[in-house]
Amino acid sequence: MPDTPLGLYLPLFLVALGGATLLSAGHYFLLARHKSLGSEARLPRQLVLLLLTVSTLVAVIVVSPLPESTRNQVLGLLGLVLSGVIALSAAPFVTNFMATVMLRVTKPFNVGDFIRVGEMYGKVSERGLFDTEIQTENRELIAIPNGTFINQPVTVVRSSGVIISATVSLGYELGYSQVEPLMLKAAEDAGLSDPYIHIVALQDFSVSYKVCGLLADVQSALTARSELNRQLLDKLHDAGFEIASPTITRHITQSAETTIIPETSEPDASNERVKAEEIVFDKATETGRLSQERAGLKEQIRELSESKSGDKQRKQDLLASLKAVEQQLKALADEP
Length: 336
Prior knowledge:
Blueprint: H1 5-30, H2 39-63, H3 68-106, E1 114-117, E2 120-127, E3 131-135, E4 141-145, H4 148-151, E5 154-156, E6 162-170, H5 176-189, E7 193-202, E8 207-215, H6 221-238, H7 277-280, H8 282-306, H9 312-334
Antiparallel strand pairs: 1-2, 1-5, 2-3, 3-4, 6-8, 7-8
């Protein structure tokens, strides 16, 4: 029997069949039954399947009816390929994984926070095992390797508020006492609290003023910057003050009495402005909201589980809501 073709190929057939069955069962129980899992939770399961695949391949080679020398060469080639792949990917893999561990311990930012790393600025929309996704002001999604956060300083906008500022240049003929009340009023009308003024530069033809104020709602920072600039234009132009930003020089064809001030017009009250944050940070905002909702549902389920007189129907409703939220999070995570 061992010398017959059937006897030679029977171990190979049994091992291949067993390996295929094991891989199919592993795929079903680890991934197929848990389609709502996010990318971060799926990765360990995918690594287990990869390990099972390599082990099955090695077992097939070992029991194959090849000459011993050929079998050793095939196994050596497979080991060489795997060693090369691991050597090439180990450095960034380990760096990003250890950076992820450090970020989980230190928790410098969360989903929904505005951060700046290097020249990239945006709102955190997803945190993975090896990278962090942010959504920029142009509505783009950028995946930043987690190793970047340990190699470069990270700026995080505080949830308690952010300073919004704008800089304008005004002529030397305008005194500070004339300018300050108008700029402070512009900051207040833009929705900023505790405004203040700095003189940042005495330039050749103008003085640069910087007005700052605290914005409590950090989610609307993009709109607040634009609103502050608009209020500055309105207040200074209505007072007859010429804005010389960055620099206005006088030519022979223009007298010193000529000013560059547009004609004022009444704003259209029916024209509602669209908040830019609702468009450019849609995924990050929705992810942050769903993450908070998921955490709240888990806390309610935990409290009901610990309570002896817990409402079973209430718990089932909460579990259904939690499942729906996790499916929405998965859909957002899979969105390109």
